[in-house]
Each structure stands twice: as C-alpha cells, then as structure tokens.
Amino acid sequence: MPYSRKHYLAVLEESKKELEGTDAAEKARLCGFEFEETEEGPRMFFISLGVQYEIDPVTWEIRRVAGGRVMPLQMRIVTLHYIKRAAGVPLKGELIPLTKFPELMNYGPVIRRRSENILSRCFADNPELFFPALEKLGGERINMGDAAGRFHQLPLLPVVVVVHESEPGLPGEAIVMMDASAPEMMHLEDLVVLAELLSHKLASVAAGD
Q: Which has fewest Cβ within 10 Å: 37, 67, 84, 134?
C-alpha cells in the first residue's frame, strides 16, 4: 500500500533535521555536487534527468534553478538520504540487475511491479520510443539489448535501463540495473524508489505528458 503524503512530509522533515550542521562543502564534494557561495548563502547544484537543481544547505530545500519549482517530494527525500549517507563510495564498474542484488532478491516482485513492468508495457513492443524519452531526460545511449540508456537522477549513482523487444511467442522485458556499489551508497528502499521514479518518468515522457 502506498504511503500517504503526510507520511512522506514527516520523513522529509526528519531528513532535514538529521542534516542540520552538515559541512555543506564537504558533502557537495562527496555527492558529486557543485558548491558555490552565492549572495543568498551557500548552495549546492546538480543535474537530475536533464534538469538543474539547487540545494539550500540551511533549509535543505531543493528547487529547479530555472523557475524555482520545488523538486517532487519523493525525489527530495531520496536526495537528502543520498546526501546524508554520502561517503565518496567509488563505482565498481559492474552493472547488476536491481532484482539480482542479494540484498534485494526478496523485493524482486515489487521491483518488477513498480518499475520494470511499467517500462516493458511502454517500450517492449516498440523500443524506438525509448530514445526520444532518453534524450529528453539527459540520458546516454549504451549498446545493450534493443534499446538502453544510462541515467543520472543523482550525480554518482547511474541507473541503466535495458529494453528487450517482444518477439512472436516471446514477451519483451525491461531491466533496471545499477552499479555493484549502489547498496553502499543508498538505502535499499531508496534504490527501489529511484527505479520506480525513473520508470514512471520515462513512460510519462514517451506518452507526451
């Protein structure tokens, strides 16, 4: 059952409190953010799915640089969790399907329902639809499956989506993959949420929403 907005707001406020007194410049370095002392005070900057955001490390609000729109609630929470846990963990260079991480194997049905099945329904019958959505979200094409791309919702945590086209008598599929270091960077539930948010965003962009 999905959590209520009230629950998410409570988690957001708890995350902000946990970051009080944080060394913003050091956290920016560990997270792969840019750091700048502006007239309004210190700011962190990063790009998520092609959109530039700024973080106020006093209030821990996260807004688009262009227009000032607040980042969607769940992504704000995941970003603050990322900042809190940031420890400069290096990538291992090994991509693993999210359902195959030992820590997440019991979450396989949840991951497929909340992300991979959404991607399959959207792209498996026509993988070419994937590429315009990828470009709009600032993704990078990679040579895997029938369509694939690498996305950055957070600077140091790439997420890879691979689409395999449907064939007669054989349903297509989509796989969400992350670097082997991902569980060291983020809580497991946050990894599942990142996959879910990316999947919905790709499907929405492909549908023209």
A: 67
